[in-house]
UniProtKB/TrEMBL annotation:
Name the record gives this protein: Dioxygenase
A Pfam family that the UniProt record links to this protein: LigB
GO MF annotation terms: ferrous iron binding; oxidoreductase activity, acting on single donors with incorporation of molecular oxygen, incorporation of two atoms of oxygen; zinc ion binding
The species this protein was found in: Natronoglycomyces albus
Sequence similarity: Belongs to the DODA-type extradiol aromatic ring-opening dioxygenase family.
Segments forming domain Extradiol ring-cleavage dioxygenase class III enzyme subunit B: 63-264
InterPro entries for this protein: Extradiol_dOase_DODA, Xdiol_dOase_suB
Domain of life where this protein originates: Bacteria
Required cofactor names: Zn(2+)
Keywords: Dioxygenase, Metal-binding, Oxidoreductase, Zinc
Cited CDD domains: 45_DOPA_Dioxygenase (cd07363)
Amino acid sequence: MLTTAQPIKAYADFLPAARTASASTEEWTETDPALPSVYLSHGAPPLLTEADWIAQLFALAQSMPKPRGIVIISAHWEAAPVALTASGGDLVYDFSGFHPVYRELTYATPDSTRLAQRVAAAMPDGEPVHQHVSRGLDHGAWVPLMAMYPNADVPVVQMSIPTHDPHQLLDLGRRLGHLRDEGVLVIGSGFMTHGLPFLDRDAIAGIQVPSWSREFDAWAAEALSTGDIEALANYRAIAPGVSYAHPTVDHFVPLFVTFGAATKIEQPAQTAIDGFWMGLSKRTFVLK
Protein backbone atom coordinates (compact mmCIF):
# COMPACT_ATOMS: atom_id res chain seq x y z
CA MET A 1 0.00 0.00 0.00
CA LEU A 2 1.25 3.49 -0.84
CA THR A 3 0.62 5.88 2.03
CA THR A 4 2.69 8.91 1.02
CA ALA A 5 3.03 9.75 -2.65
CA GLN A 6 5.38 12.71 -2.89
CA PRO A 7 8.86 11.09 -2.62
CA ILE A 8 7.80 8.22 -4.88
CA LYS A 9 5.47 9.97 -7.31
CA ALA A 10 6.48 7.71 -10.18
CA TYR A 11 5.06 4.70 -8.36
CA ALA A 12 1.93 6.56 -7.32
CA ASP A 13 1.34 7.55 -10.94
CA PHE A 14 1.93 3.97 -12.08
CA LEU A 15 -0.48 2.30 -9.69
CA PRO A 16 -4.01 3.05 -10.98
CA ALA A 17 -3.58 1.67 -14.51
CA ALA A 18 -1.22 -1.09 -13.37
CA ARG A 19 -3.60 -2.38 -10.72
CA THR A 20 -6.39 -2.57 -13.28
CA ALA A 21 -4.20 -4.33 -15.84
CA SER A 22 -2.77 -6.75 -13.31
CA ALA A 23 -6.21 -7.62 -11.95
CA SER A 24 -7.32 -8.68 -15.43
CA THR A 25 -4.21 -10.76 -16.19
CA GLU A 26 -5.16 -14.38 -16.79
CA GLU A 27 -3.91 -16.73 -14.09
CA TRP A 28 -1.72 -19.73 -14.90
CA THR A 29 -3.64 -22.95 -15.52
CA GLU A 30 -2.61 -26.55 -15.99
CA THR A 31 -2.91 -26.13 -19.76
CA ASP A 32 -0.19 -23.48 -19.78
CA PRO A 33 3.52 -24.31 -20.13
CA ALA A 34 5.76 -24.13 -17.09
CA LEU A 35 6.52 -20.63 -15.93
CA PRO A 36 10.08 -19.41 -16.52
CA SER A 37 12.70 -18.83 -13.88
CA VAL A 38 13.89 -15.25 -13.51
CA TYR A 39 16.90 -13.35 -12.21
CA LEU A 40 16.05 -9.79 -11.12
CA SER A 41 18.35 -6.88 -10.46
CA HIS A 42 16.24 -5.38 -7.71
CA GLY A 43 17.94 -2.06 -7.07
CA ALA A 44 16.97 -0.45 -3.78
CA PRO A 45 13.77 1.16 -2.47
CA PRO A 46 14.29 4.23 -4.74
CA LEU A 47 13.63 1.88 -7.67
CA LEU A 48 10.06 3.07 -7.05
CA THR A 49 11.06 6.57 -8.17
CA GLU A 50 12.18 5.27 -11.59
CA ALA A 51 9.20 5.24 -13.96
CA ASP A 52 11.04 3.38 -16.72
CA TRP A 53 12.33 0.65 -14.41
CA ILE A 54 8.90 0.18 -12.81
CA ALA A 55 7.37 -0.15 -16.27
CA GLN A 56 10.01 -2.68 -17.34
CA LEU A 57 9.37 -4.90 -14.32
CA PHE A 58 5.63 -4.67 -14.83
CA ALA A 59 6.01 -5.55 -18.51
CA LEU A 60 8.04 -8.62 -17.51
CA ALA A 61 5.22 -9.75 -15.22
CA GLN A 62 2.62 -9.05 -17.89
CA SER A 63 4.53 -11.17 -20.41
CA MET A 64 3.48 -14.36 -18.60
CA PRO A 65 0.34 -15.68 -16.91
CA LYS A 66 -0.13 -14.61 -13.32
CA PRO A 67 1.62 -17.16 -11.09
CA ARG A 68 -0.15 -19.26 -8.51
CA GLY A 69 2.78 -18.56 -6.24
CA ILE A 70 6.26 -17.05 -6.16
CA VAL A 71 9.40 -18.46 -4.57
CA ILE A 72 12.08 -15.79 -4.35
CA ILE A 73 15.68 -15.99 -3.17
CA SER A 74 17.03 -12.57 -2.21
CA ALA A 75 20.59 -11.41 -1.74
CA HIS A 76 19.55 -9.88 1.56
CA TRP A 77 18.87 -13.08 3.46
CA GLU A 78 21.84 -15.38 3.94
CA ALA A 79 21.15 -18.17 6.40
CA ALA A 80 21.89 -21.86 6.68
CA PRO A 81 20.20 -24.24 6.88
CA VAL A 82 17.59 -23.14 4.37
CA ALA A 83 15.01 -20.89 5.97
CA LEU A 84 11.59 -19.80 4.72
CA THR A 85 9.60 -16.69 5.53
CA ALA A 86 6.46 -16.77 7.63
CA SER A 87 3.13 -16.32 5.90
CA GLY A 88 1.93 -12.86 6.86
CA GLY A 89 5.29 -12.03 8.43
CA ASP A 90 6.42 -8.46 8.90
CA LEU A 91 8.23 -6.83 5.99
CA VAL A 92 11.94 -6.36 6.60
CA TYR A 93 13.08 -2.75 6.10
CA ASP A 94 16.72 -3.74 5.74
CA PHE A 95 18.10 -0.40 4.58
CA SER A 96 19.01 3.02 5.88
CA GLY A 97 19.69 6.49 4.53
CA PHE A 98 16.52 6.73 2.45
CA HIS A 99 13.39 8.84 2.92
CA PRO A 100 11.21 7.61 5.84
CA VAL A 101 8.32 6.97 3.42
CA TYR A 102 9.92 3.69 2.37
CA ARG A 103 9.39 2.33 5.86
CA GLU A 104 5.68 3.08 5.55
CA LEU A 105 5.23 0.83 2.52
CA THR A 106 3.41 -2.45 2.95
CA TYR A 107 2.99 -5.48 0.70
CA ALA A 108 0.52 -7.91 2.24
CA THR A 109 0.31 -11.03 0.07
CA PRO A 110 -2.10 -14.00 0.42
CA ASP A 111 -1.44 -16.92 2.73
CA SER A 112 1.63 -18.83 1.57
CA THR A 113 1.55 -21.76 4.01
CA ARG A 114 0.87 -24.41 1.35
CA LEU A 115 3.57 -23.04 -0.93
CA ALA A 116 6.08 -23.08 1.93
CA GLN A 117 5.18 -26.72 2.57
CA ARG A 118 5.79 -27.56 -1.10
CA VAL A 119 9.18 -25.82 -0.98
CA ALA A 120 10.17 -27.57 2.23
CA ALA A 121 9.16 -30.94 0.77
CA ALA A 122 11.49 -30.34 -2.19
CA MET A 123 14.56 -30.14 0.03
CA PRO A 124 16.78 -33.21 0.55
CA ASP A 125 15.61 -35.79 3.06
CA GLY A 126 17.28 -35.28 6.41
CA GLU A 127 18.26 -31.67 5.76
CA PRO A 128 16.49 -29.25 8.09
CA VAL A 129 14.37 -26.41 6.78
CA HIS A 130 13.74 -23.59 9.22
CA GLN A 131 10.25 -22.09 9.03
CA HIS A 132 10.64 -18.59 10.41
CA VAL A 133 7.84 -17.57 12.75
CA SER A 134 7.81 -13.83 12.07
CA ARG A 135 10.11 -12.81 9.21
CA GLY A 136 8.46 -11.48 6.09
CA LEU A 137 9.92 -10.36 2.79
CA ASP A 138 13.01 -8.14 2.63
CA HIS A 139 13.44 -5.30 0.15
CA GLY A 140 15.14 -7.57 -2.36
CA ALA A 141 11.73 -9.24 -2.68
CA TRP A 142 9.01 -6.71 -1.93
CA VAL A 143 10.45 -3.76 -3.87
CA PRO A 144 10.52 -5.45 -7.31
CA LEU A 145 7.31 -7.37 -6.59
CA MET A 146 5.49 -4.10 -5.87
CA ALA A 147 6.23 -3.19 -9.48
CA MET A 148 5.53 -6.62 -10.95
CA TYR A 149 2.38 -7.51 -9.00
CA PRO A 150 1.06 -4.24 -7.59
CA ASN A 151 -2.13 -5.79 -6.19
CA ALA A 152 -0.08 -8.08 -3.91
CA ASP A 153 -2.42 -10.91 -4.97
CA VAL A 154 0.10 -13.75 -5.39
CA PRO A 155 1.34 -15.88 -2.44
CA VAL A 156 5.07 -15.36 -1.91
CA VAL A 157 7.65 -17.43 -0.04
CA GLN A 158 11.17 -16.12 0.38
CA MET A 159 13.98 -18.60 0.85
CA SER A 160 17.34 -17.84 2.39
CA ILE A 161 20.64 -18.26 0.57
CA PRO A 162 22.38 -21.08 2.47
CA THR A 163 25.70 -20.96 0.58
CA HIS A 164 27.68 -19.00 -2.01
CA ASP A 165 28.83 -22.14 -3.82
CA PRO A 166 27.50 -21.97 -7.41
CA HIS A 167 27.08 -25.73 -7.82
CA GLN A 168 25.21 -26.13 -4.55
CA LEU A 169 22.93 -23.25 -5.56
CA LEU A 170 22.35 -24.88 -8.96
CA ASP A 171 21.26 -28.00 -7.11
CA LEU A 172 18.97 -25.94 -4.89
CA GLY A 173 17.40 -24.48 -8.00
CA ARG A 174 16.94 -27.96 -9.49
CA ARG A 175 14.90 -28.92 -6.46
CA LEU A 176 12.59 -25.97 -7.07
CA GLY A 177 12.30 -26.47 -10.82
CA HIS A 178 9.28 -28.80 -10.73
CA LEU A 179 7.25 -26.07 -9.02
CA ARG A 180 7.34 -24.14 -12.30
CA ASP A 181 5.12 -26.91 -13.74
CA GLU A 182 2.59 -26.03 -11.02
CA GLY A 183 2.41 -22.35 -11.89
CA VAL A 184 5.06 -21.15 -9.44
CA LEU A 185 7.47 -18.42 -10.52
CA VAL A 186 11.02 -18.99 -9.24
CA ILE A 187 13.04 -15.77 -8.85
CA GLY A 188 16.64 -15.10 -7.89
CA SER A 189 16.91 -11.48 -6.79
CA GLY A 190 20.23 -9.63 -6.71
CA PHE A 191 22.01 -6.95 -8.72
CA MET A 192 24.20 -7.71 -11.72
CA THR A 193 26.83 -5.33 -10.36
CA HIS A 194 26.85 -4.13 -6.77
CA GLY A 195 30.07 -2.26 -6.07
CA LEU A 196 28.52 0.28 -3.72
CA PRO A 197 31.82 1.22 -1.99
CA PHE A 198 33.35 2.20 -5.34
CA LEU A 199 30.67 4.52 -6.71
CA ASP A 200 31.70 8.12 -7.20
CA ARG A 201 29.51 11.19 -7.54
CA ASP A 202 29.27 10.92 -11.33
CA ALA A 203 28.06 7.33 -11.09
CA ILE A 204 25.50 8.12 -8.39
CA ALA A 205 24.23 11.04 -10.45
CA GLY A 206 23.92 8.84 -13.53
CA ILE A 207 26.53 10.83 -15.46
CA GLN A 208 29.04 8.05 -15.98
CA VAL A 209 29.11 4.26 -15.58
CA PRO A 210 32.27 2.99 -13.86
CA SER A 211 34.47 0.91 -16.15
CA TRP A 212 34.40 -2.06 -13.77
CA SER A 213 30.59 -2.12 -13.83
CA ARG A 214 30.37 -1.84 -17.59
CA GLU A 215 33.06 -4.48 -18.17
CA PHE A 216 31.58 -6.98 -15.73
CA ASP A 217 28.11 -6.50 -17.20
CA ALA A 218 29.42 -7.03 -20.76
CA TRP A 219 31.20 -10.22 -19.67
CA ALA A 220 28.06 -11.48 -17.92
CA ALA A 221 25.88 -10.61 -20.92
CA GLU A 222 28.11 -12.68 -23.20
CA ALA A 223 28.11 -15.68 -20.86
CA LEU A 224 24.36 -15.44 -20.41
CA SER A 225 23.75 -15.20 -24.15
CA THR A 226 25.45 -18.56 -24.70
CA GLY A 227 24.31 -20.26 -21.50
CA ASP A 228 27.93 -20.68 -20.40
CA ILE A 229 27.20 -21.77 -16.86
CA GLU A 230 30.78 -22.91 -16.23
CA ALA A 231 32.12 -19.43 -17.02
CA LEU A 232 29.49 -17.89 -14.76
CA ALA A 233 30.36 -20.34 -11.99
CA ASN A 234 34.04 -19.41 -12.37
CA TYR A 235 33.30 -15.68 -12.12
CA ARG A 236 35.67 -15.04 -9.22
CA ALA A 237 38.66 -16.08 -11.34
CA ILE A 238 37.77 -14.82 -14.82
CA ALA A 239 35.22 -12.00 -14.71
CA PRO A 240 36.72 -8.55 -15.37
CA GLY A 241 36.35 -6.07 -12.52
CA VAL A 242 34.84 -8.69 -10.22
CA SER A 243 36.49 -7.39 -7.04
CA TYR A 244 34.84 -4.01 -7.68
CA ALA A 245 31.59 -5.23 -9.20
CA HIS A 246 31.02 -7.72 -6.35
CA PRO A 247 33.14 -6.99 -3.27
CA THR A 248 30.66 -9.35 -1.65
CA VAL A 249 29.01 -11.94 -3.87
CA ASP A 250 25.53 -12.08 -2.35
CA HIS A 251 23.93 -10.09 -5.21
CA PHE A 252 25.44 -12.26 -7.94
CA VAL A 253 24.95 -15.81 -6.69
CA PRO A 254 21.10 -15.87 -6.78
CA LEU A 255 21.40 -16.29 -10.55
CA PHE A 256 22.61 -19.86 -9.99
CA VAL A 257 19.28 -20.73 -8.38
CA THR A 258 17.60 -19.23 -11.45
CA PHE A 259 19.69 -21.43 -13.76
CA GLY A 260 19.19 -24.50 -11.62
CA ALA A 261 15.40 -24.11 -11.73
CA ALA A 262 15.36 -23.83 -15.53
CA THR A 263 14.36 -26.71 -17.80
CA LYS A 264 17.95 -26.95 -19.06
CA ILE A 265 20.81 -25.42 -17.12
CA GLU A 266 22.97 -24.73 -20.15
CA GLN A 267 20.69 -22.55 -22.22
CA PRO A 268 20.88 -18.96 -23.47
CA ALA A 269 19.23 -16.46 -21.17
CA GLN A 270 16.79 -13.90 -22.51
CA THR A 271 17.62 -10.43 -21.22
CA ALA A 272 14.44 -8.65 -20.17
CA ILE A 273 15.97 -5.46 -18.72
CA ASP A 274 19.40 -3.91 -19.20
CA GLY A 275 21.05 -0.55 -18.66
CA PHE A 276 22.47 1.04 -15.53
CA TRP A 277 21.20 2.81 -12.43
CA MET A 278 23.61 4.81 -10.28
CA GLY A 279 26.38 3.10 -12.26
CA LEU A 280 25.14 -0.41 -11.43
CA SER A 281 23.87 -2.93 -13.97
CA LYS A 282 20.12 -3.53 -13.99
CA ARG A 283 20.45 -6.68 -16.10
CA THR A 284 17.49 -8.97 -15.55
CA PHE A 285 16.98 -12.20 -17.47
CA VAL A 286 14.55 -15.05 -18.06
CA LEU A 287 15.11 -18.77 -18.60
CA LYS A 288 12.56 -21.29 -19.88
